Model the fold of this input.
Amino acid sequence: MHKRFLVMAFVAAVLSAPLPLEAQTAARARHVAASSTVPAKSALRAQIDSVVRSYLAGGKAAGMSVAVMRGRDTLALKGYGYADLEFDVHTPDHAVYEIGSVTKQFTASAILLLQERGKLSLDDPLTQYLPGYPAQGHTVTLRRLLDHTSGIKGYTELPEFGLFMMRHVARDSLVALFSSKPFDFAPGDAQVYNNSAYFLLGLIIEKTSGLSYADFVKKNLFEPAGMTDSRYCSESAIFKRRAHGYDTGPDGLRRAAYLDHLWPFAAGSLCSSAADLVSWNRALHGGRILSAASYKELTTPGTLNDGTRLRYAKGIAVHSVAGHRVIEHGGGINGFLSASDYFPDDDAIIVVLINTAGPVSPDAVVASLADLVLGRKTLASMLYAGDLTHLTGTYSGVGRGRETRLLVAADRGSLSFKPDRGGAPKRRARYVGENTFMVDDTRYTFLGGGDSPPRLRVDAVYGLSVFDRK
Done:
């Protein structure tokens, strides 16, 4: 089966490959000095253009739309490169993209609206709304679906999903496929990014609201936020300013692989523009979509059964970028990559939409722009006083669709971490105390002590599980 069936289907984060990638981090460093100085507004616009164009150089991506807002100042809201390569169509300023898993915050917001209206509760079991679902002896609450801790098998990681991508058959057939698989773990024991959970949430939205998912989102989210360019995606519909998607092949860019939008559904089937996502961030974080209590629920991460605090809340992640606190989500779907980031302490929004699924990471572009616009903060590091060699070795744990292995080695007074899979780079970490090392915003915390082999807790924001040393 072609690899894209596993990794190009609306992937927002992979536990074993934290973003941004090493090469893109280096590109960011060429543009931004490690200081907190922010250029004047007039200079910023030219520098933003320079940063964005560097990521498009050499044809690594067809095109990109970028929005950068700081307070009420619009520092960038424009398209770059091409929306269509075959006809040399430049990207218009309000180009519409498939946004993949950025969809998840809309789905989570819809669930919370329905809770406000008394239609459901986050603590209700899944089987209360889908009584035929085989829970295999587990109790799976809606809360566990929202933060990827359900343990249900993710359908985008199943080899059989490749057969669904181009077929238009009953949605129940996909549910029957993934629900027949054993749970990856007991609900609440770990966190593994999971599209099946959001597919099920879409079904629950339809059942409790009496509307299709597309109509509920349009009426209750798009319209209140003033999102006139946004819609449920279609593989066949014609609409204005639509950017065409491209995948990356061995010979360069190619048209994106076909995907029937029956299947991404509430996990990743929305289309939007950079301007509309700015409107969405302002409405959502400005109190115009959810009540104060629901907004707090949306943006407050929960815990695992052992009390470990997550950094992924409900359809949205809460962590840091370039040293700045951020509430964000990214997305990836055939032909498209996206990132929508809100920086609450800076009152800033950065949206990056790319019509190419390839080497350019929207998260890396966001980090570069955050460095530039908000000022780069110095990241703290410490000297590890223990014996690093006691921590080295090969660790394995629960990942997306398969066991994930991680190679840990001593590296110039610190540790380096390398996913044991083809092409993944070795990343050198900084030590931040309490047996925790960090690469970008991924935390590696060693558990245990004495003569016992250490265990490793890997918190990559979109996933959290404990690895054992082999």
